[in-house]
TrEMBL record:
Lineage: Bacteria, Bacillati, Actinomycetota, Actinomycetes, Kitasatosporales
Gene Ontology MF, one: aromatic-L-amino-acid decarboxylase activity
Record-given protein name: Aspartate aminotransferase family protein
GO BP annotations, alphabetical order: carboxylic acid metabolic process
Residue list for modification N6-(pyridoxal phosphate)lysine: 295
PROSITE patterns referenced in this protein's UniProt entry, alphabetically: DDC_GAD_HDC_YDC
Requisite cofactors: pyridoxal 5'-phosphate
Similarity comment: family membership: Belongs to the group II decarboxylase family.
Keywords for this protein: Aminotransferase, Decarboxylase, Lyase, Pyridoxal phosphate, Transferase
Any Pfam family the entry gives: Pyridoxal_deC
Source species of the chain: Streptomyces fructofermentans
Amino acid sequence: MHRTLADDLSRLPELLQSARDFAAREVAGLDARPVAHLGGPPDAEPLPADGVGAEGALARFAERWAPGFSASAGPRYLGFVTGGATPAALTGDWLTGAYDQNSAGGGDSTATALERETLSWLRELFGLGDDHSGAFVTGATVSNTVGLAIAREWLGERLGVSVSEEGAGALGPVDILSGSPHSSVPKALSVLGIGRGRLRTVPLLPGGREAVDVARLDAELEALDGRPAVVVANAGTVNTVDFDDLRAIAALKERHDFWLHVDAAFGGFAALSPSYAHLVDGLDAADSVCVDLHKWLNVPYDAAVQFTRRRDLQVRVFHNASPYLGAPTGEPDFVHLTPENSRRLRALPAWFSLAAYGRAGHREIVERNIALARRLGDGIADVPGLRLLAPVRLNVVCFTLEGDAGRERVHALGRAVAGSGEAFVTPTVFEGTHALRAAFSNWRTSEADTDRVLAAVRRAAGATDS
């Protein structure tokens, strides 16, 4: 064994303690560090010839790289839809690395059984029935891709061809219909060989809504004259967290032949709150469902789940035909359900957080975040020079500048907020207007944090207009 590696092995407990102490200081200092780092990276260094050991590597990281990392795990990072890591989830994530289980298959570990238990808990959390089976994947993009890959195989089944054997070209032109699809959907269609151009957007409800007009969707499906299609419904759009009427869309199946995929990346968590669960009424009727976990479940990157009613088609798409991996019979191993062969035990941080805080703890996070989003929205509505672009429906505040809200001015406002070190929000475009969006999904965020964000936005707006 290499001398430095052997030395690290002999000192492993104290090295882990050093890493623990460093991580604890970093987490404890989240409030003090700038929420975003806008400076450049350090100069690149050549690959070390011999290395400096784990302790030396930790010291070099602390000096060169740690200062430039954002406080994305903290309470005032409101960019994208980014959660943090609950204490229990972080514990599970550390143990994931320590155990280093390859959860692709069973036979030598109970890790796959733990993943199945976690999936069962999540299925219950989101109100899905036992006929939905699932698997962990890296994020919403892969979850949407897996769901649409199963939908592609279903289209082949309806047309009498096997896409997994003959390729996507055997389908001919495919019809994908959606009102406000997330950008990951056309990306998935590109990867799957269906093509971005096959996605057709259906008109939305009037009045600044991002929800699909179900009557117009009905007409679009009718015009297909019985040809099977895929409908991508949204349970929480990124700009205004609008929800399609899932129950009404599912009812269209009585007259039309289509696969219903629901992108519930973060909006699915509305199911946890009695006040908002009606927004995802009908989710159980979906043929496939995407839910992201490193958003509102607050587990570390990267973790999401996908669910489907047609595990048989999922196995047909993803099975790995190799003698050493076994056949996908009975309860198939996860190697036969997702694009990955080797895969880390992403379920463990989620299992820890669900076991630690249960439904009630995660419901509290969701409801607190919603209340804080409304608090920020009310505050922004009172700031001269700013205006809300949509009501705060759940956990996202979408706002812009009064007057000429062009890209340059709006992006300058976002940079000024980030430059303050107090908060981070991301730019977007809503109904042709450049805007900023603040997304609340972190388990730590408080009223005091929200007030600090509002103060930073107010100062930046004043500086932008001056």
